[in-house]
Design goal:
The chain is α/β, with parallel strands linked by helices. It is about 35% helix and about 20% strand. The protein has 15 helices and 21 strands. The structure holds 2-aminohexanedioic acid. Homotetramer. Keywords: NAD, Oxidoreductase.
């Protein structure tokens, strides 16, 4: 069915340009079949210390390489990713489960990010600014922070790594990268690409292992000056606390409870397509996944019927089979969490219209599958309407007006993505202003962010930083103000002005 050979049965850490074997390992399982595909190293804290030592040394040289030359490496990375797109996509489907079409899309995000950030090598814009005093020049420019740590999740194992590592590299930093243990193959493949592209040794160091060991060692290491993290709310808040104490820069992206608003004037067929794609794509395991539909009561019944009809056409199974539209859940724990929310929803009084169970029949082939699920008559405050489920579960919440819809959208603790389906231009502009999320879509679902725009959210989604877009450079750079006085005499700011 299109499974491909890994070409290695040994994943190793990549430290200072060397592949280092680690004794302790744990199994990586293909979520579509439950079969072990490879063993991932579980490094100890010493591996982080070694990686940081190498990174510090390498960064001193790297920062002196002109940014357009640093960018040349990223162009090479982009070409190699493009050449290997199909291989990477298939491996991604095997380790993560997302269907091949989506895996190809994710790898494409990485390729786009390579060329986009390579372009930044010739920009990295600062500002020239008039100085207060005569014969004095003032400017502000971006300077690399030094050694940065990136901690990436299993749901987008390659795209999110590129959102973080590429801006860090082009800006002149060295990177310590801890990928999720569920999806190490993308990290291994990307490390090989960095190596082949000619990235100097020590600029990217991959240390596989657990968050409680490797991640914790990174957060505590005094020479890692930035932590960029995407993952769970609880872990992110702990990282933020520790980084705060150490005055370390930190960028957090911790999920969403994203809603599609369907107004009474919406194109309902289009809304159904948008909801299905963003709620059930990646089996709902996206930070941007739609898990609430806030619907005008006048079109609620109609929308329910159309959604139910279209949901019947969703084919579920191994993502390597291109006939399948919905793949598996990452693992057993993920399945159990989703199942627990079905019980919660029922107890809270929402009405289950479809799905609500895992698929343990023959079709599941030993993998972890959950039926696309639709609740209706949910209220904005129910737990199924406010907590992140990370699965193919969507709840309809009826409302009477746009104001009520926006209020329901904004009531949750997260603020990543939102969407509105309407044909009324006034409603479009009101919604894009009032929806309290970092990303707003009009007449499209809640997923599908493009890499040259800032990705991130308000409130509990993060801490104000953004991945991708030129804004991704902010956390990996310090602003340096430079004053050059060419008057030949001491000129005192604020004092020697007329
Ligand atoms: C995520 O869910 O963590 O916008 C990333 C999207 C994708 C990225 C999602 N481009 O849905």
């Amino acid at each position: 069915m299109g499974a491909i050979a890994l070409e290695t049965d040994r994943l190793a850490n990549f430290i200072n340009g060397e592949w280092q074997e680690v004794q302790q390992k744990t199994a990586v399982v293909n979520p579509a079949t439950g079969e072990e595909i490879v063993q991932v190293p579980l490094s100890d804290r010493a591996a982080v210390v070694e990686a940081v030592r190498a990174a510090k040394k390498a960064q001193k040289e790297w920062t002196l390489v002109p940014a357009p030359q640093r960018a040349e490496v990223l162009y090479q990375v982009g070409y190699l990713m493009k050449e290997r797109k199909e291989r990477l996509s298939r491996l991604l489907t095997m380790e993560n489960g997302k269907v091949l079409e989506e895996a190809r899309g994710e790898v494409q995000e990485g390729i786009d990010m390579a060329f986009y950030m390579a372009g930044e090598g010739r920009r990295l814009f600062g500002h020239t600014t008039p100085a207060e005093l005569k014969d004095k020049f003032a400017m502000s420019q971006r300077a690399p922070v030094g050694v940065v740590g990136i901690i990436t999740p299993w749901n987008f194992p390659i795209a999110i790594a590129t959102w973080k590592s590429f801006p860090a590299i082009v800006a002149g930093n060295a990177v310590i990268w801890k990928p999720a243990t569920e999806t190490p193959i993308m990290a291994y493949e990307l490390a090989k690409i960095f190596e082949e592209a000619g990235l100097p040794k020590g600029i990217v160091n991959v240390v596989f292992g657990k968050g409680s060991v490797v991640g914790d060692a990174m957060v505590h290491h005094p020479d890692i000056r930035v932590i960029s993290f995407t993952g769970s709310n609880e872990t992110g808040r702990n990282i933020a606390g520790e980084c705060g104490r150490q005055l370390k820069k930190v960028s957090l992206e911790m999920g969403g409870k994203n809603a599609v608003i369907v107004m009474d004037d919406a194109d309902l067929d289009l809304a159904v397509d948008g909801i299905l794609w963003s709620a059930f794509g990646t089996s709902g395991q996206r930070c941007t996944a739609c898990s609430r539909v806030i619907v005008h009561e006048k079109v609620k019944k109609d929308l329910e019927q159309r959604l139910l009809a279209k949901m019947k056409t969703l084919t579920i199974g191994d993502g390597l089979d291109e006939a399948n539209k919905v793949g598996p859940i990452i693992n057993q724990a993920g399945l159990e969490k989703i199942a627990s929310y079905i019980d919660i929803g029922k107890k809270e009084g929402a009405k289950l219209l479809a799905g609500g169970h895992s698929l343990e029949s023959e079709a599941s082939q030993g993998g972890y599958y959950f039926a696309p699920t639709l609740f209706t008559d949910a209220t904005p405050d129910m737990r199924i309407s406010t907590e992140e489920i990370f699965g193919p579960v969507v709840s309809l919440i009826p409302v009477k007006s746009l104001e009520e819809a926006i209020e329901a959208n904004n009531r949750v603790e997260y603020g990543l993505s939102s969407s509105i389906f309407t044909r009324d231009v006034n409603r479009v502009f009101q919604a894009q202003r009032d929806l309290d999320t970092g990303i707003v879509y009009v007449n499209a679902g809640t997923t599908g962010a493009e890499i040259h725009l800032p990705f991130g959210g308000t409130k509990g989604t993060g801490n104000g930083h953004r991945d991708s877009g030129v804004q991704a450079l902010d956390v990996f750079t310090e602003w340096k103000a430079v004053y050059v006085d060419y008057s030949g005499k001491l000129q005192r700011a604020q004092i020697d002005v007329e």
